[in-house]
Amino acid sequence: MQHNQTVARRLRGCKGYLYLAPSLIILLVFTVYPLIKAFAMSFCEDYSIIDGSFKGINLQNYQDLFADEVFLKALSNTTIYVVFVVPLSILLSLVLAVLIHNSLRGKALFQTLYFLPYVTSVIAIGIVWSWIFNSNYGLLNYFLSLFGIPAIPWLNDPHYALAALIIFSIWKSLAFNILIFLSGLASISQEIYQAARIDSTPRLRVFFKITVPQLRPIIVYAVLMGLINAFKVYNEVFSLFQSKAGPANSAITVVYYIYDKFYNSGDYGVASAAAVVLFVIILVLTMVQKSIAKEKEEA
Amino acid sequence: MKRKSIPCLLLAAAVTVGTLTGCSANADSASTGASSTGASSAASSAATSDSAIQPCEVTFWHAMTGQQETTLTELTDQFNSENEYGITVTLVNQGSYDDLSTKLTANAAADTLPDLSQAYNSWLIPYLDKVVHLDDFVANDYDNYEDIMESYREETSQFGFINAMPFNKSTYVYFYNKTMFDELGLEAPQTWDDLLTIGKTFLEKKNMVSLGFDDMAGMLEATLRQNGCDYVSEEGALFDTDAGQQAIDFIMEMYNNGYARLVGEDGYFSGPFSNQLIPAYIGSSTGVSYITHDGWELGVAPLPGNTEKAANTAGTNIVMFSKDANQQKAAWEYLKFLTSTDATVKWAMDTGYLPVRTSAYESETYQNFMQSDATATASYAQADAFFSSPAFDGSYDIQNAVNSKLEELILNKADGATAMKELVDAVNGAL
Question: Left if phi > 0, otherwise alpha if psi is -120 to 50, otherwise beta: which for B397?
C-alpha cells in the first residue's frame, strides 16, 4: 500500500514519461532488446535460438567470422560501395537540386520526377534495373554501343557486378538527397544572393561561397544518413541479382551476409557477431563524422 | 533536473517490462492448459491409443500458390467435408518457401509451431526435437507404406525416424527443343558422351551454347552420382576420388568448350529456353509451367548418365508438430488422406508435381495422363534413379559454397584438377 502511494506520487511527477511510454515500449522491445540480445548472442558459442542453449561464452564467433573469406569479401565490398555511393550521390544530388531550384519552369515536374524512386518499392526498381543492365537487351549497353563500347555483362561477370550495384544505388539515393537539399535551398535568404548579384559574382563562386556553406548542416546530415544507409545495403543487392548476391557471391554485402548466416545457415552466433561488427563500424564513423562537423562549427 | 529524471525513466522501463512479462505469463499458462491433455514431448504415443478422435481444428502452413494452392484447397475441402471425426484442416499460406522457413524457425523458438507444415529436411535441423516421430502412426495406421516411392521413404527417414510424409515432389529432367534437335539430326542424350556430341554440334552448326543447369550444386551432385561417386557427408567432401575427378573433368569440359553456360542474369533457364536462345536445359519438372513453346516442339527426357543413372528429387514434405494427442491423430488422418492414391493422383495431374505412390503411377487415370504429358513420362522413367541430398548441420553452407565456387571456376575457365582441389576446399571449409 505504502509502495503504491509512492508509485502514484512518482507517476504524477513524471507524467511526461507516461505519454512517452507507448513509443518507449516499442523502442525497448524492437530496438533496445534486440540490440542487447545480439550483443549477448555474439559471445555465445554455437547459440541456438530455439532453446537458448550454447556451448560457452567466448570469442569463437568472432574468430570464425574473421576467418571466413565470405565475410571479409562482404566487408571489403561494403567499404567500396560506401566510398563510391555516398560522395557521388551527395555531389550529384546537390548539383541537381541547385539546377532544379534555379529553373523557373517545370520546377514541380522535376521535383516529382526525381522523387519517384523514393516512393517506389526497391524490389520493383531493382527488377527494372536488372533489365537496364541486361547484357543482351539492356538499355545501358545500347547507349554504350552508340559510343562504340562493346556489350558489358554487368550482372554476369563478377568484375562488373559491384559496379552495377553502385550505379543503381547512386541513382536510387538521389531522390532523398535532392529533396532535403531543395528544402535547404528554399531556406537560404534571397538577400544574400541579391547582394552577390549586385557585385556580379560569378555563378560558380556563388555556388561554393554561398550555397554550399549555407547548406552545410544539411550536407552533414545527408552524409551521415547516406553513410548509415550505405553500410546497411541489402535490398538493392537482393532485387538486382534476383535473390542472390551476384555471380559467384561477388556482390555480397555485410547485411546480406548477416541475413544469410542467420536465416539460411542457422549460425546465429556468427550472424550476431557480424551485426555487432557492423554496429561498431557505423558507431565509430558516426562519432568521427560528428566531431569533425562540430569542430568546423566551432572554428 | 537530470538526476530526477533517471528514476522516472527506470519506472517507465519497469512499467514496460511489467506489461511484457504479464503477457508472456498469460501465454504460457494458456499453452500449458491446452497441451496438458496430450503428450508433452514429440513422441507419437498417440498412435497406439484407440479412443475416437474428437472434433478439432488442424492448421497446415504451406507455400503453394496459383494452381497448386487451388488444388490443395479443393483436396482439403474434400477432406473437411468427408472425414467422419469433425476434423477441420485450416490452410495458412505463409508466402514463399523462404518466408515459410523463416516463420517456422521463429515459431520454433517461440514454441508456437503449427500442427502441420510443408518443410525441407534441411530446415528442421535446428528444431528437430519438435518434429513428431511418425513411425508408430505408419506402423499402426497406414495403408501400405511400402507403396510410397523408395527414395521418398529414404529421404523422410534420414534422421533415423520417419519425420515427414512426402507431398509436392518433383525431379530434374532434360528439357530440349525437339524442333531444333530434329533439324540437326540429334536425339535426346542418354550418356555424357551424347551431351558432348550435342554440345559440339550446336556450337559448330548454330554457334549456340546447348546446355544449362538451373541448380549448380544439384548438377555437381547428380554428375558425381552418375559416375558412381558420393558427394558430401557431415565429415566433408567424399568426391576426391578417380570417379569424382572424371565427373569434374566432364563438367569443366562442358563449360570450357562452350557447350554449357551459367544462368546469370536470366535467373532460370526457362526464359531463354522459351525464346529459343538455348536448345536444352536441366531443371525441375515443375518448371515446365514456365516454358512457352510457340512454333516449336518441346521434348522432355530423363537425365543422361554415365556409369550409373542418378536424378535429383526436389520438393517439400509435410511435417507434424502437434503436441496434443488428439491433434496428432487428427493431423495424421489428413496426412493419410493427402498421400492416398486418389489424392496424390489428383494433386499430380492438376499441379505437375509427381505422385508419391507407385500405385498412383500405375493407376489407369495417371497412365492415361502420362500419355499426353511428356514431363510426367520422363520423370517416371527415371524413378529408379531418384536420389535426395542429405540434410545435416552445415548442408546449407556446403550448397552455398559449392554454388559460388562452381560459378567462379566456370567464369575463370579452370581445369579439372584445379576445380577438384578448390571444390574440396570449399566443401570442407564450409563445415
Answer: alpha
Distance from C-alpha of B104 to C-alpha of B119, rounded to nearest angstrom: 9
d(CA B300, CA B170): 14
Q: Is A135 on the interface with B (CB under 8 A)?
A: yes
Q: Any idea what the Cα angle at residue B373 is, between residues B152 and B165, rounded to 5°?
A: 20
Residues A27 and A116 in one domain: no
A21–B16 CB contact, under 8 Å: yes
Q: How many CA atoms lie within 13 A of B228 on its CB side?
A: 5
Which residues contact residue B325 at a Cβ distance below 8 angstroms, ignoring those fewer than 6 apart? Answer: B37, B38, B39, B45, B46, B49
Q: Which range of residues forms the domain containing residue A256?
A: 69-298
Q: Is B174 in contact with B143 (CB distance < 8 Å)? A: no
At residue B281, the 3 state secondary structure works out as strand
In chain A, what residues touch B429 (CB-CB under 8 Å)?
A: 69
All domains of chain B, ordered by start, with CATH?
55-169+315-362 (3.40.190.10), 171-313+387-430 (3.40.190.10)
- A127 contacts in chain B (CB < 8 Å): none
Query: For residues B342 and B60, is the Cβ–Cβ distance under 8 A?
Result: no
CB spacing of B404 vs A249 below 8 angstroms: yes
Report the CATH number that the domain containing residue A287 is assigned in CATH: 1.10.3720.10
Q: For strand B311-314 and strand B170-177, is the pairing parallel, antiparallel, or unpaired?
A: antiparallel
**DSSP secondary structure letter of residue B305:** B
CA distance B49 to B331: 15
Closest chain A CA to residue B429:
A68
A214 and A250 belong to one structural domain: yes
How many domains, chain A?
2
Within-domain flag for A57: no
In a domain, A53, yes or no: no
Length of chain A: 299
Long-range contacts of A212-220 (CB under 8 A, 24+ apart): A212/A94, A214/A184, A214/A188, A215/A94, A215/A181, A215/A184, A215/A185, A215/A188, A216/A296, A218/A180, A218/A181, A218/A183, A218/A184, A219/A90, A219/A94, A220/A289, A220/A293
Check whether residue A26 and residue A101 sit in a common domain: no
Are A50 and B9 an interchain contact pair (Cβ–Cβ within 8 Å)?
no
A130: cell is: 536488372
How close does chain B come to A233, measured CA to CA in Å?
20
Query: The cell 476434423 sits on which residue?
Result: B87
pLDDT (tens place) for every residue of chain B, 431 residues total = 344 444 444 434 443 333 333 333 333 333 333 333 333 344 444 554 557 899 999 999 999 999 999 999 999 999 999 999 999 999 999 999 999 999 999 999 999 999 999 999 999 999 999 999 999 999 999 999 999 999 999 999 999 999 999 999 999 999 999 999 999 999 999 999 999 999 999 999 999 999 999 999 999 999 999 999 999 999 999 999 999 999 999 999 999 999 999 999 999 999 999 999 999 999 999 999 999 999 999 999 999 999 999 999 999 999 999 999 999 999 999 999 999 999 999 999 999 999 999 999 999 999 999 999 999 999 999 999 999 998 999 999 999 999 999 999 999 999 999 999 999 999 999 88
* Chain-chain contact of B105 with A248 (C-beta, under 8 angstroms): no
Residues of A in contact with B265 (CB under 8 A): 130, 133-135, 153-156, 242
Q: Which residues contact A46 (CB under 8 A, 6 or more apart)?
A: A54, A55, A60, A269
CB-CB under 8 Å, A156 with B262: yes
Q: Quick check: is A61 in a domain?
A: no
Q: Is the domain of A285 the same as that of A175?
A: yes
Reported residue count of chain B is 431
- Distance (Å) from the alpha carbon of A34 to chain B's nearest alpha carbon: 14
